[in-house]
From TrEMBL:
InterPro entries attached to this UniProt entry: CheY-like_superfamily (IPR011006), Homeodomain-like_sf (IPR009057), HTH_AraC (IPR018060), HTH_AraC-typ_CS (IPR018062), Sig_transdc_resp-reg_receiver (IPR001789), Tscrpt_reg_AraC-type_HTH (IPR020449)
Domain Response regulatory residues, every copy: 2-119
Domain HTH araC/xylS-type: 151-249
Pfam families cross-referenced by the UniProt entry: HTH_18 (PF12833), Response_reg (PF00072)
Lineage: Bacteria, Bacillati, Bacillota, Bacilli, Bacillales
Name of the molecule in the record: Two component transcriptional regulator, AraC family
PANTHER family attached to this UniProt entry: ARAC-FAMILY TRANSCRIPTIONAL REGULATOR (PTHR43280), HTH-TYPE TRANSCRIPTIONAL ACTIVATOR RHAS (PTHR43280:SF28)
SUPFAM superfamilies per the UniProt record, alphabetical: CheY-like (SSF52172), Homeodomain-like (SSF46689)
Gene Ontology molecular function, alphabetical: DNA-binding transcription factor activity; sequence-specific DNA binding
Domain of life: Bacteria
SMART domains, A to Z: HTH_ARAC (SM00342), REC (SM00448)
GO biological process, one term: phosphorelay signal transduction system
Length: 256
């Protein structure tokens, strides 16, 4: 996941970069362009998650740049920044589909609030898309086999690990009482339901940490953890490293 800053004002670009690097979103890759031409080229090559564009660029207007990006890519958010305090600019950028407008110098708390809103929006979209796929799997593939309740439960957990599921939910799926299901699950798998679910979530997180640049808090929500802090604590207990340390280690290994 990356954010592209299109701004010929170096001081402003550095400020935004520092705001992001000193926040919980420091894992996000930051790209910079000094002109509309360079920025549009980088959008096509790097497909950033968010584009932050100055509205007054030397070779074009940020409005035109943003409109072009939004017309070609429906998975990119655009944020406008400007020194001009004009209602017309705000209105036109929002009406054009921009996801935010910030006056320079951008205020740290307000800017990060916008970034977090967009990260959450993308997370929700990803979960909805995944839910559609898994819902199809549920209807076409997942069928409770009363002769193999634990195998059925395991299959359901593997398909729905990212949801907020608990022991009672699974027991109900296989028509067993929670206490009876818990005993049977431990006998068959030699682990508890919570331990099994957590292990699956951790394994999924390891894949995302190694193969994507998604922020850690986004990964946490995508795999079913209620918070990034709880995910980090659980991950370290399981792997002996924090998610950040695990990602850095594998980046170094891949580099050799």
């Amino acid at each position: 996941m990356s954010i592209l800053i299109i701004d010929d004002d170096l001081e402003s670009s550095v400020r935004i970069t520092n705001i992001l690097k000193q926040s919980i979103h420091s894992d996000i890759k930051i790209l910079e362009a000094r002109s509309a031409t360079e920025g549009l080229k980088m959008v096509k090559e790097d497909r950033p998650f968010i584009v932050v564009t100055e509205l007054s660029l030397s070779d074009s207007t940020g409005l035109e740049v943003g409109k072009k990006i939004l017309s070609e890519f429906n998975d990119i958010f655009v944020i406008a920044i400007s020194q001009l305090k004009m209602f017309e600019l705000v209105q036109e950028s929002i009406n054009s589909g921009f996801s935010g407008f910030h006056l320079k110098p951008v205020i740290k708390s307000e800017f990060l609030s916008t970034i977090e809103r967009l990260i959450l929006s993308r997370t929700i979209i990803n979960k909805q898309e995944t839910s559609i796929i898994l819902s199809d799997n549920d209807s076409d593939e997942f069928k409770a086999d009363m002769s193999k309740p634990i195998s059925t439960a395991i299959e359901y957990i593997r398909l729905n690990y990212f949801k907020s599921i608990n022991l009672n939910d699974i027991a109900d799926k296989v028509y067993l009482s929670p206490s009876h299901f818990s005993r049977m699950f431990k006998e068959v798998t030699d682990t508890t339901f919570i331990e099994f679910l957590t292990e699956i979530r951790i394994e999924k997180s390891k894949y995302f940490l190694k193969s994507t640049d998604m922020p850690i808090e986004v990964i946490a929500h995508n795999i079913g953890f209620s918070s990034a802090t709880y995910f980090a604590t659980t991950f370290k207990k399981s792997q002996g490293k924090t998610p950040r340390e695990y990602r850095i280690l594998h980046l170094k290994l891949d580099a050799h």
